[in-house]
Every structure is written in structure tokens, then in C-alpha cells.
Design brief:
Blueprint lengths: L35 H16 L4 E3 L9 E7 L5 E13 L7 E7 L2 E10 L2 E7 L5 E7 H14 L10 H10 L8
Antiparallel strand pairs: 1-2, 2-3, 3-6, 4-5, 6-7
Length: about 180
């Protein structure tokens, strides 16, 4: 079925929540409403992501504890993919393909990157802002992005996956607290 495109330029950028804020370190709430307010939130998420020059953004990264994220990044073929998912459920290639280690950064930990191992292929199923089913399968950077954003909705920031010393060094370099509130 044909779906009407969202005018992603209609949103307003909001400040990015930094590592240490409680909203980033707890699981987000499921979305139970599909109305104009949810669409406005998603549009604001796109605007915030684009203004911060990111490739993905979870709702909690702008201080909203809801299970929603947006993305705009290339897959392994270099083709750009953009969209949003509400109440996403992640599945990965697991044993079918070895994990891929690559550099990862986060708008909530500005200016820093670290190597993180992720599944080579990731599929996320959820719904769009109107409650219609959506499934996205990603490879390359898109696979990494889908896993990274789903982690955010679980209260996990990529630096939480690193050894304690490396995490502390990255957070110190970003001027952020080593512990969250």
C-alpha cells in the first residue's frame, strides 16, 4: 500500500539529552497513542537529528521516554535509508553471520567514538506514527544504527557496552559524568 510521506522539515529541533540524564538510563515506555502529538514528536526527532548531524535518534535523546526512533543513514550498499519506528522489536543475524566491529558514536556523548561489535544484519519490526506495521532490515551502518537506537530505548548507551576504563575515558573526554543520575 502507498503511504503518505511525512514532511520531515516540519519539525523543530530540540536539545540533545547528554549521557548522565536519567531518561537515557532506563527503559522507555511503550507508545499507546497514535495521534498528531506523536507525529509532531517524530518530526521534532528528525529535526533534532538533522541539526545535530546524526544518522539516528531515539526519543529519550530529546528527553521523551517513549519507544520511538528515527534514522537516516546508508546501508552496506551505500543506499540511504530513512524512516521511523514506534515500539520496535529487534532481531539480529546472530549465529548466521559473525559480528562486525566498527566505530560508533552517539549524539548524547558528543565528539567521541569507540569500537563496538554489532550483528552484521539487523531487522526491526514495529509500527509507524499511525500504527501501521513497519519492518526494516539493515546491513552496514544501517544495521549498526538500528541496534544502537533500539539499545537507547532499553536504557543502554553504546558506552555502557565498553570496558569500564574505556567508558570512563570517553566520558571524561566528552566532559560528561562517569556515572548516571
Amino acid at each position: 500500500t502507498q503511504r503518505e510521506p511525512m514532511d520531515v522539515s516540519a519539525g523543530m529541533a530540540r536539545p540533545i539529552t547528554r549521557y548522565g540524564a536519567a531518561v537515557l538510563h532506563r527503559p522507555c515506555d511503550p507508545v499507546n497513542f497514535f495521534d498528531d502529538a506523536l507525529e509532531a514528536l517524530v518530526l521534532d526527532m528528525f529535526a533534532s537529528m538533522y541539526e545535530a548531524d546524526g544518522v539516528g535518534l531515539a526519543a529519550n535523546q530529546i528527553g521523551v521516554s517513549l519507544r520511538a526512533f528515527v534514522y537516516d543513514c546508508p546501508d552496506a550498499s551505500g543506499e540511504n535509508q530513512a524512516g521511523h519506528l514506534i515500539n520496535p522489536v529487534l532481531t539480529t543475524s546472530g549465529a548466521l553471520a559473525p559480528p562486525v566491529t566498527g566505530y560508533e558514536g552517539c549524539l548524547s556523548v558528543p565528539g567521541q567514538q569507540a569500537e563496538v561489535s554489532r550483528a552484521a544484519v539487523a531487522t526491526v519490526s514495529g509500527v509507524d506514527v499511525r500504527g501501521r506495521p513497519v519492518t526494516v532490515t539493515g546491513t552496514g551502518l544501517l544495521a549498526r544504527c538500528l541496534q544502537h537506537e533500539t539499545d537507547h530505548l532499553r536504557g543502554i548507551v553504546y558506552v555502557d557496552l565498553l570496558p569500564v576504563g574505556e567508558r570512563a575515558a570517553i566520558l571524561a573526554a566528552a566532559g560528561l559524568p562517569a556515572r548516571h543520575r
